[in-house]
Design goal:
11 helices, single chain, 38% helix, 441 residues, five-stranded mixed β-sheet, Nucleotidyltransferase, domain 5
Length: 441
């Protein structure tokens, strides 16, 4: 695989997407190839059949390789699923010497302390995201580095997940013959692909409606404030249509995509669609009004659950108000009149998010569909990780050169040490999953 290519692997309940991309000369993401396969072996974001998942991954990867005429070796994988939950936590450290300024090491010490929190059996902390800091009781500090203080405290947004689920994903990727380059939380990947920095500053709730789950990520002042995974998605709507109209799943899915609407008032009573009967049986006639009533009932339930989470974050408080409202993305966001229904239930401004914010201008229209928001976000994440690795390599090189210079000219004053780029906790989680898989072989 070319050095500057990144691959995102979105393991969804309905589909698995492999996407190959690189940065063009303007810093935008150019998608070179995309592969899709039906997701077998994954239910609500959790692997429940290793063999089928491996086969689905291989099919998607082969299709992407053929489209991009390039070999895929390493991938950035998204994790979501009903086992993901989040909590708010406050913690503090007392510094030994308040006469020195706060530096990276103090913040790292504080974050590592949060990682020692006792979780439920089988759970592990995936993300520790600092919200705001307090130094000696002075609140609302966004960046404490360089300040004086004895006591450093912070509020954290902690994302927790099941260790076994993450390891199973790692195992599937490895068994499909791929390297696990990085792990990213899917709501964060989707947010990076469809939200602008202004929206993140103003306050926005991203709702990613997938097949098995609906992911929520709330941003305010440019910082992620709340994440949640609701264990319902587009598949539950299809299931309801199947039961309500007594038809097979394939027909129910097609009905939903072609004629489905989240707003029953839009359809007249005499609008009817005819569905071929099975094996010579008479065709079935279904009124579009009934179809949209079935869809409406389930969609309202999903949105109301999401709205409860938005209220839990504190949207109704003046200080926490989400000025930019709601952005809908994911395959489910393509449902007709969903935007209007969300606005009606929540009273918040709503738009559908397309992942074209960071894509090159000549991108294929199919790629800019909300369906591929997570995959585009994962590609962006992979490219970012590559930049970080390059920066680290550069720093190592500089340090080596500095050491050689110092050895050659002992009399010269020793130059300032070069700062290493900060690694995110997800990088070390990826390493731990990799080590676990290597030892398990």
């Amino acid at each position: 695989m070319e050095q500057n290519l990144a691959v995102g692997l979105d393991l969804g309940t309905t589909k698995i997407v492999a996407m190959i991309g690189r940065k063009n000369e303007y810093g935008k993401v150019e998608i070179l190839g995309i592969g899709k396969s039906k997701s077998l072996g994954i239910h609500r974001g959790v692997v429940n059949n290793i063999t089928q998942t491996i086969q689905s991954i291989q099919l998607a990867v082969q299709e992407a390789e053929a489209a991009a005429a390039s070999k895929i070796e390493g991938v950035t994988v998204g994790i979501a699923g009903q086992h993901i939950r989040s909590l708010q936590h406050s913690d503090y450290i007392t510094r030994a010497d308040s006469e020195t300024v706060i530096d990276d090491n103090d913040i790292e010490r504080l974050i590592n302390q949060v990682h020692k929190l006792v979780m439920l059996p089988g759970e592990e902390i995936i993300h520790v995201l600092p919200q705001e800091y307090k130094v000696d009781g002075q609140a609302e500090i966004k960046e404490p580095i360089g300040m004086y203080g004895g006591r450093l405290e912070a509020n954290f947004h902690v994302v927790v997940g099941q260790v076994s689920s993450i390891r199973n994903i790692g195992r599937c990727v490895k068994s499909a013959g791929l390297d696990l380059e990085g792990i990213t939380l899917e709501p964060l990947a989707s947010a990076n692909a469809v939200l602008s920095q202004e929206e993140k500053e103003a306050g926005v709730a991203l709702i990613d409606i997938g097949g098995g789950t609906t992911d929520l990520a709330i941003f305010r002042d440019g910082i992620i404030r709340h994440t949640a995974v609701i264990p319902f998605g587009g598949n539950v709507i299809t299931e309801d249509i199947k039961e309500g109209c007594s038809i097979i799943e394939k027909q129910a899915e097609l009905l939903k995509i072609k004629f489905g609407s989240a707003w029953p008032g839009e359809n007249k009573d005499n609008e009817i669609v005819s569905i071929p009967g099975l094996r010579g049986r008479d065709p079935k006639e279904i009124t579009l009004k009934n179809l949209s009533k079935i869809i409406h009932a389930r969609v309202v339930e999903i949105i109301e659950q999401v709205y409860v989470e938005i209220k839990n974050y504190g949207h109704e408080e003046q200080k926490k108000k989400l000025i930019a409202g709601i952005v809908l993305t994911g395959g489910g966001a393509q449902l007709k009149h969903l935007k209007q229904l969300v606005e009606y239930i929540t009273g918040m401004d709503t738009r559908v998010g397309y992942p074209n914010e960071h894509l090159a201008g000549d991108s294929d229209e199919a790629i800019t569909s909300p369906l591929f928001a997570t995959a585009v976000g994962l590609v962006m994440d992979g490219l970012k990780r590559q930049d970080r690795v390059k920066a680290e390599a550069k720093v190592e090189e500089t340090i080596e050169e500095t050491n050689i210079l110092v050895e050659e000219e002992e009399e010269q004053p020793i130059p300032e040490p070069v700062k290493k780029p900060k690694r995110s906790f997800l990088d070390s989680l990826t390493e731990r999953v990799r080590d676990f898989l290597d030892n398990a072989e």
